[in-house]
Amino acid sequence: MKVLVFGAGQLAQMMYLAAAPLGVEVYAVDVVAREVINPVDKSKFDMSIEYAVSDVHVITAEFEHVPEDLLDMAEKSGKLHPNMAAILTGADRVREKYVLDTNNIQNCPHLIVSDVSDLDAAVQALGEKIIFKASRDGYDGYGQWRLINSEELPKLKHAFASLDLKRVPLVAEKMLSFDREISIIGARDAKGNVCCFDIAENLHHEGQLHVSVAPATAVSAAVQKQAEQIFETLANALNYIGVLAVELFQSGDELLVNEIAPRVHNSGHWTQKGADTCQFEQHIRAVLGFPLGDTASKGVTAMINIIGCTSFSRDLISIPGCHLHWYGKEVREKRKMGHINVVADSYRELGEKLLLLLQYLPEEYFVLLRGEAQRLI
Ligand code: ATP
Ligand code: MG
Ligand code: MG
Protein backbone atom coordinates (compact mmCIF):
# COMPACT_ATOMS: atom_id res chain seq x y z
CA MET A 1 0.00 0.00 0.00
CA LYS A 2 1.09 3.57 -0.58
CA VAL A 3 0.74 6.75 1.47
CA LEU A 4 1.46 10.24 0.18
CA VAL A 5 2.57 12.82 2.74
CA PHE A 6 2.38 16.57 2.17
CA GLY A 7 5.69 17.87 3.49
CA ALA A 8 9.07 16.18 3.18
CA GLY A 9 10.80 16.91 6.47
CA GLN A 10 11.77 14.67 9.37
CA LEU A 11 8.19 13.78 10.26
CA ALA A 12 7.55 12.33 6.80
CA GLN A 13 10.91 10.61 7.06
CA MET A 14 9.98 8.97 10.36
CA MET A 15 6.58 7.94 8.95
CA TYR A 16 8.44 6.24 6.10
CA LEU A 17 10.68 4.35 8.51
CA ALA A 18 7.75 3.24 10.66
CA ALA A 19 5.59 2.24 7.69
CA ALA A 20 8.15 0.09 5.90
CA PRO A 21 7.84 -2.97 8.20
CA LEU A 22 4.06 -2.94 7.58
CA GLY A 23 4.71 -3.19 3.86
CA VAL A 24 3.55 0.39 3.37
CA GLU A 25 5.46 2.72 1.06
CA VAL A 26 5.58 6.43 1.91
CA TYR A 27 6.02 9.11 -0.74
CA ALA A 28 6.47 12.76 0.23
CA VAL A 29 5.56 16.00 -1.49
CA ASP A 30 8.02 18.86 -1.23
CA VAL A 31 5.29 21.50 -1.25
CA VAL A 32 7.68 24.31 -2.16
CA ALA A 33 9.38 22.62 -5.14
CA ARG A 34 6.09 20.80 -5.89
CA GLU A 35 7.91 17.51 -6.37
CA VAL A 36 7.24 13.97 -5.23
CA ILE A 37 10.30 12.68 -3.38
CA ASN A 38 11.53 9.89 -1.15
CA PRO A 39 11.49 11.48 2.34
CA VAL A 40 14.56 9.54 3.50
CA ASP A 41 17.11 9.94 0.71
CA LYS A 42 15.28 12.93 -0.86
CA SER A 43 15.57 11.41 -4.36
CA LYS A 44 13.00 12.72 -6.80
CA PHE A 45 10.36 10.50 -8.38
CA ASP A 46 9.48 11.04 -12.01
CA MET A 47 5.85 11.52 -11.05
CA SER A 48 3.54 14.54 -10.86
CA ILE A 49 1.67 15.35 -7.65
CA GLU A 50 -1.60 14.73 -9.56
CA TYR A 51 -0.43 11.26 -10.54
CA ALA A 52 0.72 10.47 -6.99
CA VAL A 53 -2.65 11.59 -5.62
CA SER A 54 -4.43 9.22 -7.99
CA ASP A 55 -1.99 6.35 -7.39
CA VAL A 56 -1.76 6.14 -3.58
CA HIS A 57 -4.31 4.70 -1.12
CA VAL A 58 -4.16 7.50 1.42
CA ILE A 59 -2.91 11.10 1.59
CA THR A 60 -1.84 12.78 4.80
CA ALA A 61 0.27 15.73 5.99
CA GLU A 62 3.32 16.17 8.19
CA PHE A 63 2.60 19.84 8.79
CA GLU A 64 -0.46 22.06 8.76
CA HIS A 65 0.75 24.86 6.48
CA VAL A 66 0.12 22.98 3.23
CA PRO A 67 -0.96 25.17 0.28
CA GLU A 68 -4.74 25.01 0.05
CA ASP A 69 -4.84 23.99 -3.61
CA LEU A 70 -2.96 20.79 -2.72
CA LEU A 71 -5.23 20.07 0.23
CA ASP A 72 -8.21 20.72 -1.99
CA MET A 73 -6.98 18.28 -4.63
CA ALA A 74 -6.36 15.64 -1.96
CA GLU A 75 -9.72 16.20 -0.27
CA LYS A 76 -11.54 15.83 -3.59
CA SER A 77 -9.83 12.46 -4.13
CA GLY A 78 -11.55 11.23 -0.94
CA LYS A 79 -8.22 9.94 0.41
CA LEU A 80 -7.11 12.78 2.70
CA HIS A 81 -6.76 11.88 6.41
CA PRO A 82 -7.09 13.87 8.57
CA ASN A 83 -9.63 15.87 6.60
CA MET A 84 -8.93 19.31 5.14
CA ALA A 85 -11.00 21.24 7.71
CA ALA A 86 -9.08 19.57 10.56
CA ILE A 87 -5.73 20.44 8.98
CA LEU A 88 -6.83 24.02 8.36
CA THR A 89 -8.01 24.30 11.96
CA GLY A 90 -4.49 23.48 13.10
CA ALA A 91 -3.08 25.96 10.60
CA ASP A 92 -5.15 28.92 11.70
CA ARG A 93 -5.28 30.04 15.32
CA VAL A 94 -8.56 31.89 14.75
CA ARG A 95 -10.28 28.69 13.59
CA GLU A 96 -8.55 26.74 16.34
CA LYS A 97 -9.85 29.06 19.07
CA TYR A 98 -13.32 28.83 17.56
CA VAL A 99 -13.28 25.01 17.74
CA LEU A 100 -11.99 25.10 21.33
CA ASP A 101 -14.56 27.67 22.45
CA THR A 102 -17.55 26.06 20.73
CA ASN A 103 -16.65 22.70 22.30
CA ASN A 104 -16.26 24.27 25.75
CA ILE A 105 -12.61 23.30 26.00
CA GLN A 106 -10.67 25.56 28.37
CA ASN A 107 -7.99 27.60 26.63
CA CYS A 108 -6.07 30.85 27.18
CA PRO A 109 -8.25 33.97 27.43
CA HIS A 110 -7.87 35.62 24.04
CA LEU A 111 -9.02 38.26 21.60
CA ILE A 112 -8.69 38.46 17.82
CA VAL A 113 -6.72 41.47 16.59
CA SER A 114 -7.59 42.40 13.01
CA ASP A 115 -6.77 46.11 13.32
CA VAL A 116 -4.13 48.04 15.26
CA SER A 117 -6.95 49.82 17.06
CA ASP A 118 -7.93 46.46 18.66
CA LEU A 119 -4.73 46.54 20.75
CA ASP A 120 -6.17 48.86 23.41
CA ALA A 121 -9.19 46.60 23.76
CA ALA A 122 -6.86 43.61 24.12
CA VAL A 123 -4.98 45.27 27.00
CA GLN A 124 -8.33 46.26 28.55
CA ALA A 125 -9.63 42.71 28.36
CA LEU A 126 -6.51 40.66 29.01
CA GLY A 127 -4.22 42.88 31.07
CA GLU A 128 -0.81 44.18 30.06
CA LYS A 129 0.99 40.83 29.82
CA ILE A 130 0.01 39.50 26.43
CA ILE A 131 1.42 37.20 23.76
CA PHE A 132 0.39 38.16 20.25
CA LYS A 133 0.49 35.22 17.88
CA ALA A 134 0.20 35.43 14.09
CA SER A 135 -2.86 33.38 13.25
CA ARG A 136 -0.99 31.54 10.50
CA ASP A 137 2.44 30.12 9.68
CA GLY A 138 3.93 30.32 13.19
CA TYR A 139 5.95 27.52 14.77
CA ASP A 140 8.77 27.16 17.31
CA GLY A 141 7.74 30.55 18.71
CA TYR A 142 8.20 32.38 15.40
CA GLY A 143 5.48 34.90 14.57
CA GLN A 144 4.97 35.90 18.19
CA TRP A 145 5.34 39.19 20.01
CA ARG A 146 5.31 39.61 23.76
CA LEU A 147 3.93 42.63 25.60
CA ILE A 148 5.24 42.80 29.15
CA ASN A 149 3.96 46.21 30.17
CA SER A 150 1.59 48.67 28.53
CA GLU A 151 4.34 51.28 28.07
CA GLU A 152 5.62 49.11 25.24
CA LEU A 153 2.24 49.28 23.48
CA PRO A 154 3.10 52.17 21.09
CA LYS A 155 6.16 50.23 19.88
CA LEU A 156 3.99 47.19 19.14
CA LYS A 157 1.39 49.32 17.38
CA HIS A 158 4.15 50.64 15.20
CA ALA A 159 5.42 47.14 14.43
CA PHE A 160 1.93 45.81 13.66
CA ALA A 161 1.10 48.75 11.36
CA SER A 162 3.11 47.09 8.58
CA LEU A 163 1.24 43.76 8.90
CA ASP A 164 -1.84 42.93 6.87
CA LEU A 165 -4.00 42.19 9.91
CA LYS A 166 -7.21 42.06 7.89
CA ARG A 167 -5.84 39.14 5.89
CA VAL A 168 -3.86 37.46 8.69
CA PRO A 169 -5.15 38.59 12.08
CA LEU A 170 -3.28 38.09 15.34
CA VAL A 171 -4.57 36.22 18.33
CA ALA A 172 -3.84 38.13 21.54
CA GLU A 173 -3.50 35.70 24.45
CA LYS A 174 -3.24 36.51 28.10
CA MET A 175 0.24 35.48 29.28
CA LEU A 176 -0.41 32.82 31.85
CA SER A 177 1.70 31.25 34.53
CA PHE A 178 1.33 27.52 34.95
CA ASP A 179 3.06 24.63 36.69
CA ARG A 180 4.22 22.90 33.52
CA GLU A 181 3.62 22.30 29.84
CA ILE A 182 2.36 18.90 28.82
CA SER A 183 0.95 17.31 25.69
CA ILE A 184 -1.43 14.51 24.95
CA ILE A 185 -0.98 12.66 21.71
CA GLY A 186 -3.35 10.06 20.42
CA ALA A 187 -5.03 8.58 17.40
CA ARG A 188 -8.60 8.29 16.22
CA ASP A 189 -9.58 5.84 13.51
CA ALA A 190 -12.41 5.89 11.00
CA LYS A 191 -14.67 3.91 13.37
CA GLY A 192 -14.19 6.55 16.07
CA ASN A 193 -11.89 4.43 18.24
CA VAL A 194 -9.57 6.66 20.25
CA CYS A 195 -6.27 5.63 21.78
CA CYS A 196 -3.89 8.02 23.59
CA PHE A 197 -0.28 7.77 24.71
CA ASP A 198 0.80 8.73 28.20
CA ILE A 199 1.08 12.49 28.68
CA ALA A 200 4.50 13.97 27.95
CA GLU A 201 5.97 16.79 30.01
CA ASN A 202 7.63 19.39 27.80
CA LEU A 203 10.46 21.77 28.52
CA HIS A 204 10.57 24.79 26.21
CA HIS A 205 13.34 27.32 25.79
CA GLU A 206 12.81 30.54 23.80
CA GLY A 207 9.49 29.21 22.46
CA GLN A 208 11.03 25.97 21.19
CA LEU A 209 10.68 22.42 22.54
CA HIS A 210 13.98 21.12 23.95
CA VAL A 211 13.13 18.15 26.16
CA SER A 212 10.11 15.87 26.64
CA VAL A 213 9.75 13.37 29.47
CA ALA A 214 7.08 10.70 29.34
CA PRO A 215 5.11 9.56 31.19
CA ALA A 216 5.04 13.04 32.75
CA THR A 217 6.31 13.02 36.34
CA ALA A 218 3.59 14.94 38.15
CA VAL A 219 0.48 13.81 36.33
CA SER A 220 -2.16 11.91 38.27
CA ALA A 221 -4.43 9.30 36.70
CA ALA A 222 -7.22 11.90 36.96
CA VAL A 223 -5.24 14.45 34.92
CA GLN A 224 -4.36 11.79 32.30
CA LYS A 225 -8.08 10.98 32.05
CA GLN A 226 -9.05 14.65 31.80
CA ALA A 227 -6.50 15.15 28.99
CA GLU A 228 -7.84 12.09 27.18
CA GLN A 229 -11.35 13.51 27.43
CA ILE A 230 -10.17 16.80 25.92
CA PHE A 231 -8.45 14.81 23.18
CA GLU A 232 -11.54 12.78 22.41
CA THR A 233 -13.84 15.81 22.36
CA LEU A 234 -11.53 17.55 19.91
CA ALA A 235 -10.91 14.51 17.71
CA ASN A 236 -14.65 13.83 17.51
CA ALA A 237 -15.48 17.48 16.80
CA LEU A 238 -12.97 17.50 13.93
CA ASN A 239 -14.12 14.06 12.70
CA TYR A 240 -10.44 13.30 12.90
CA ILE A 241 -8.60 10.31 11.45
CA GLY A 242 -4.91 9.93 12.31
CA VAL A 243 -2.58 11.11 15.05
CA LEU A 244 -3.41 14.43 16.70
CA ALA A 245 -1.38 16.34 19.28
CA VAL A 246 -2.80 18.66 21.91
CA GLU A 247 -0.46 21.00 23.81
CA LEU A 248 -1.67 21.85 27.30
CA PHE A 249 -0.74 24.06 30.22
CA GLN A 250 -1.17 22.35 33.60
CA SER A 251 -1.75 24.11 36.93
CA GLY A 252 -2.49 21.61 39.68
CA ASP A 253 -5.39 19.55 38.35
CA GLU A 254 -6.44 22.24 35.90
CA LEU A 255 -5.74 21.82 32.20
CA LEU A 256 -5.89 24.45 29.52
CA VAL A 257 -5.28 23.91 25.81
CA ASN A 258 -2.45 25.98 24.32
CA GLU A 259 -2.71 24.75 20.74
CA ILE A 260 -3.33 21.67 18.65
CA ALA A 261 -1.24 20.09 15.88
CA PRO A 262 -3.15 17.96 13.34
CA ARG A 263 -0.26 15.53 12.89
CA VAL A 264 2.49 13.57 14.57
CA HIS A 265 4.36 15.86 16.94
CA ASN A 266 7.85 16.54 18.28
CA SER A 267 6.67 15.88 21.84
CA GLY A 268 5.69 12.37 20.68
CA HIS A 269 9.11 11.34 19.39
CA TRP A 270 9.73 9.56 22.71
CA THR A 271 7.21 6.91 21.60
CA GLN A 272 9.80 5.56 19.11
CA LYS A 273 11.61 3.88 21.98
CA GLY A 274 9.32 4.40 24.97
CA ALA A 275 5.95 3.06 23.83
CA ASP A 276 4.79 -0.24 22.42
CA THR A 277 3.67 1.39 19.16
CA CYS A 278 5.28 4.66 18.09
CA GLN A 279 3.25 7.68 16.98
CA PHE A 280 4.44 7.33 13.38
CA GLU A 281 3.29 3.73 13.04
CA GLN A 282 0.07 4.63 14.86
CA HIS A 283 -0.63 7.40 12.35
CA ILE A 284 -0.01 5.05 9.42
CA ARG A 285 -2.29 2.45 11.03
CA ALA A 286 -5.06 5.00 11.65
CA VAL A 287 -5.08 6.58 8.19
CA LEU A 288 -4.97 3.22 6.39
CA GLY A 289 -7.71 1.71 8.56
CA PHE A 290 -5.44 -0.88 10.21
CA PRO A 291 -6.11 -1.78 13.86
CA LEU A 292 -4.61 0.79 16.25
CA GLY A 293 -1.57 -0.38 18.23
CA ASP A 294 -0.99 -0.65 21.95
CA THR A 295 0.18 2.71 23.33
CA ALA A 296 1.49 1.46 26.69
CA SER A 297 4.75 3.04 27.86
CA LYS A 298 7.84 0.88 28.27
CA GLY A 299 9.65 2.45 31.19
CA VAL A 300 10.27 6.19 31.30
CA THR A 301 11.74 8.12 28.40
CA ALA A 302 13.37 11.49 27.79
CA MET A 303 13.56 12.96 24.29
CA ILE A 304 16.19 15.64 23.74
CA ASN A 305 16.12 17.75 20.59
CA ILE A 306 19.46 18.51 18.96
CA ILE A 307 19.01 22.09 17.86
CA GLY A 308 21.15 24.12 15.47
CA CYS A 309 24.36 22.17 15.96
CA THR A 310 26.31 19.10 14.93
CA SER A 311 29.01 19.37 17.58
CA PHE A 312 28.14 16.36 19.69
CA SER A 313 29.72 12.96 19.94
CA ARG A 314 27.90 10.04 18.39
CA ASP A 315 29.42 7.92 21.15
CA LEU A 316 26.44 8.96 23.27
CA ILE A 317 24.83 5.78 21.96
CA SER A 318 27.18 3.87 24.29
CA ILE A 319 24.87 4.77 27.17
CA PRO A 320 22.43 1.87 27.62
CA GLY A 321 18.93 2.83 26.48
CA CYS A 322 20.24 5.87 24.58
CA HIS A 323 19.31 6.20 20.90
CA LEU A 324 20.13 8.80 18.28
CA HIS A 325 17.83 9.80 15.46
CA TRP A 326 19.52 12.09 12.93
CA TYR A 327 17.45 13.80 10.20
CA GLY A 328 20.31 14.52 7.78
CA LYS A 329 19.46 18.19 7.27
CA GLU A 330 21.83 21.05 6.64
CA VAL A 331 22.68 22.83 9.88
CA ARG A 332 20.99 26.18 10.53
CA GLU A 333 20.49 28.24 13.66
CA LYS A 334 17.55 26.98 15.79
CA ARG A 335 16.91 24.16 13.32
CA LYS A 336 15.92 20.76 14.70
CA MET A 337 18.74 18.51 13.46
CA GLY A 338 17.86 15.30 15.23
CA HIS A 339 16.84 13.95 18.60
CA ILE A 340 18.00 11.56 21.29
CA ASN A 341 15.72 9.13 23.13
CA VAL A 342 16.86 7.85 26.50
CA VAL A 343 14.85 5.04 28.09
CA ALA A 344 15.19 3.95 31.72
CA ASP A 345 13.33 1.90 34.33
CA SER A 346 12.83 4.77 36.76
CA TYR A 347 12.97 8.56 36.80
CA ARG A 348 16.04 8.39 39.00
CA GLU A 349 17.88 6.17 36.52
CA LEU A 350 16.70 8.43 33.69
CA GLY A 351 18.17 11.46 35.49
CA GLU A 352 21.46 9.64 35.96
CA LYS A 353 21.58 8.75 32.27
CA LEU A 354 20.92 12.39 31.34
CA LEU A 355 23.90 13.41 33.46
CA LEU A 356 26.04 10.85 31.61
CA LEU A 357 24.74 12.20 28.31
CA LEU A 358 26.02 15.71 29.07
CA GLN A 359 29.64 14.74 28.39
CA TYR A 360 28.75 14.03 24.75
CA LEU A 361 26.85 17.28 24.14
CA PRO A 362 27.97 20.89 23.60
CA GLU A 363 28.01 23.29 26.53
CA GLU A 364 24.78 25.08 25.64
CA TYR A 365 22.89 21.94 26.71
CA PHE A 366 24.33 21.87 30.20
CA VAL A 367 22.07 24.23 32.13
CA LEU A 368 18.76 22.93 30.80
CA LEU A 369 19.59 19.24 30.78
CA ARG A 370 21.44 19.19 34.09
CA GLY A 371 18.45 20.93 35.69
CA GLU A 372 16.12 18.35 34.20
CA ALA A 373 18.40 15.47 35.29
CA GLN A 374 18.58 16.78 38.84
CA ARG A 375 14.81 17.22 38.98
CA LEU A 376 14.32 13.60 37.91
CA ILE A 377 16.87 12.28 40.43
P1 ATP B 1 5.06 25.02 18.15
O1 ATP B 1 6.45 24.83 17.63
O2 ATP B 1 4.76 24.21 19.41
O3 ATP B 1 4.00 24.91 17.11
P2 ATP B 1 4.25 27.79 18.27
O4 ATP B 1 5.15 28.74 17.57
O5 ATP B 1 2.99 27.39 17.61
O6 ATP B 1 5.06 26.51 18.71
P3 ATP B 1 3.02 28.17 20.89
O7 ATP B 1 2.98 26.73 21.23
O8 ATP B 1 1.74 28.88 20.76
O9 ATP B 1 3.95 28.50 19.63
O10 ATP B 1 3.90 28.94 21.97
C1 ATP B 1 5.26 28.60 22.17
C2 ATP B 1 5.57 28.58 23.64
O11 ATP B 1 5.35 29.89 24.21
C3 ATP B 1 4.67 27.66 24.46
O12 ATP B 1 5.11 26.33 24.41
C4 ATP B 1 4.79 28.31 25.84
O13 ATP B 1 6.03 27.99 26.42
C5 ATP B 1 4.80 29.78 25.50
N1 ATP B 1 3.42 30.32 25.52
C6 ATP B 1 2.55 30.30 24.48
N2 ATP B 1 1.36 30.86 24.82
C7 ATP B 1 1.48 31.24 26.10
C8 ATP B 1 0.59 31.90 27.04
N3 ATP B 1 -0.64 32.29 26.69
N4 ATP B 1 1.07 32.12 28.29
C9 ATP B 1 2.33 31.78 28.64
N5 ATP B 1 3.20 31.17 27.82
C10 ATP B 1 2.79 30.89 26.55
MG1 MG C 1 2.20 25.66 16.92
MG1 MG D 1 3.30 24.97 20.53
What does the model show?
- The chain has 377 residues and is α+β, with helices and mostly antiparallel strands.
- The protein has helices spanning 10-19, 49-55, 68-76, 84-91, 93-102, 118-126, 153-161, 221-237, 271-274, 279-288, 347-358, 366-376, and strands at 2-6, 25-30, 35-37, 58-61, 110-113, 130-134, 144-147, 170-174, 180-188, 194-196, 200-205, 208-214, 242-251, 254-261, 300-307, 322-326, 336-344.
- It folds into 3 domains: 2-80, Rossmann fold (3-Layer(aba) Sandwich), CATH 3.40.50; 109-174, ATP-grasp fold, A domain (Dna Ligase, domain 1); 180-376, ATP-grasp fold, B domain (D-amino Acid Aminotransferase, Chain A, domain 1, 2-Layer Sandwich), CATH 3.30.470.20.
- Helix 1 packs across helix 10, helix 4 (84-91) packs across helix 5 and helix 11 (347-358) runs antiparallel to helix 12.
- The protein is globular, with a radius of gyration of 21 Å.
- The structure holds adenosine-5'-triphosphate and magnesium ion (2 copies).
- One magnesium ion (MG) binds next to loops.
